[in-house]
Give the backbone structure.
Amino acid sequence: MDFELSESQNIILHSAKTFLEKETKGLARDVETTDDGFSLKVWKKTAELGWFGVVLPEEYGGMQGNYIDLVLLLEEAGKALFPGPLISIIISGLCIDEYGNQLQKDELLPKIIGGDLIIVPAIIQPDPAFGGDFIQDEIKEHDGRYTLSGTRLFVPFAHVADKILYCAETSRGKTFFLSDTKNFGVVCTPLESLGGDKPSEVNFDAVEVPQENLVGQFGRAEEILKKIGEWGALAQSAYIAGMLSQILAMSVEYAKQRVQFGKKIGSFQAIKHQCAEMAGDLDRTKFLTYQAAWRLSEKLPATKEISMAKACASEASRKVSLLGVKIHGGTGVSEEYDMQLYFRRAKVAEIAFGDADFHQEILARQLGM
Amino acid sequence: MDFSFSDQEKHFEEQMRSFFLEEKETADKAKQEWDSGLGMGPNCWKILKKLGEHRWICPTWPKKYGGLELSYIYKYISMEQMHHFTNIPTLVGAGMAGPIILNHGTEKQKEKYLLEISSGEVEYTLGYTEPEAGSDLAALSIKAEDKEDYFLINGSKLFNTRTHYSRYHWLGARTEKTEKKYKGISLFIVDLKTPGITIRPIWTVGGRRTNAVFYDNVELPRETLVGELNRGFYYILEALDYERISTVGGLQRDFQEILEYVKETGRNKDPLIRQKMSQLAIEIESARLLALRVAAMLSKGKIPNHEAGMLKMMVSETEQNLVNTAMKIFGAYGQIKKGSKWAQLSGKYEWLYRDSLENLITRGTSEIMRNIIAERGLGLPRD
């Protein structure tokens, strides 16, 4: 039983903090209103630090680290609200490494890790109940090629991606296809959203994909989807832990400075107890996340622990960010301060890869209910 | 980071578990005694003495005082198993008084008091709370006058729960009137048979006995003073940090019981119940991790402070959630007491609904824990 970081983890964290301090201060705000929504320059520098291949094998340029290394870095990224498809690129890398064929691994992994190739998974199909026009799903198979049509929603940063990892239901089960975004018939449109972090609509209109661009076996994508769901939930939990840790630090700082009724507001129990509540939610999220990451590293079953982490993180995300706004008072709702940005992003992270209700249901099944 | 027990730790856990299974009859009776609200009865003492023979009550202590010189993780495992099988969550002698005697007592005191604690022969009762000193412990006023060869004690204590079956009172008393109240408090080890002490029962809403203790011209020999004169409050705080190693052994056991009930009665199909049970599982698991963090810190020679406060708060509040979840599941049947054919799970949660309240208050209320987290953990100003 050991809750402390290893020496190498301390080194990684130190360099991550220094890097983020230097390169990403205020960046999330600056890029929010740009078309890309992220900085390619910072993205490339991040790749140089090895962040896109933390757990990937050395032979492709990865760090061959463990999942704890990964969640610790994502936590730092969350503190800084690191902009860009960071979680998507990590998932795509893991997905190609575990399910891709040798050719795909040799070609794609070094580029992903090197920051030269952005691949984002596109999974969520529109629900007709919510309205909106979309392309009906259709797959045609002919001479070892596929023609894909369909719409996928809420794909992070699809508009700047090089490739889409597109999941579709075929006559023989779900399958993943890899397509260039430059291919004829692919249109990616970022949507204006609460978080301002470019969830996109991806439209495939008779897009041709050759057989060799299938990822994993034809019709057997259920397992990949489950894995993506778990990697994504774990990564989001870590990113949330980072955001909440920053929100708490900002709130405590503010409470130590702001004077009302002739006293620092941090001396009032109403404020203290809210901060203590935030600290409790943060620590629970962190340790559940670390434990789930540790289990993945040890190759132990982690479905239950990941769902515990994300359910806890999702609830904490909304609760802690709201308390943060309240402690900041008027400053908390002012556009010119960061608090509101964290508040908006916290809601997006709460939903991404399943909210608490979703993961509590997974957990209920895991408990044999 | 490592979230597993080592092979030796697993072996220790396994040894303790098989011990309790072998002694199941005694352990079950001990649990009944404990849950009756009267505190430790003959079977509790029987099981404690056997644990003492294995040196499992104070596994972290030096061998010459009945310990095994093991790390705090073993203490955690030992408490978890005891909690699981007997429902006794903690021991005041082994958990609070003993470590302070070990750290600050004289050689003579260590020899006199430590072996009886580690062998499971005696229990201590906390003598902190008074009518006018609850959360504000430093306000305690029971008077200890220095008469050179003895101290003369006059005053009273309230809600000193374990007094009626303990041998010693771990007494915090005022030895000096100081401007800063906490600077005039000293600690004493009082044999409860000393003339002039009266114990009067007080019954809680949970049917548990606690006590008022009255000191009328009680003479304590000098050698009952613990550590330095007027340093008592510092020792009290130090002991609280040790004592706040709580385990979730009892909560995990009760959760399993409710889970089985839910499955057997088909209530597991209700989405609201599925959700509540999952939320509870998450709370218990995160409390378990916070408990292990505190144990791991102590194992590395660090003193947990706000971490221990957070744990105490989480465990007692998670217990509230557990009891409330059970009561929700039972609906109107939940109010029926043990003995009726309509009582669910033998009316256990009708009782726990009352009895669990105490954990929100004893050893520092949740609100005091929040103050500790905010002030000592986050550095917010005291005033």
About this structure: Chain A touches chain B at residues 1-6, 68, 248, 252, 255-256, 263-264, 266-267, 269, 271-273, 275-277, 279-280, 283-284, 287-288, 290-291, 294-295, 298, 308, 311-312, 357, 359-361, 363-364, 367-369 (CB under 8 Å). The radius of gyration of chain A is 21 Å.
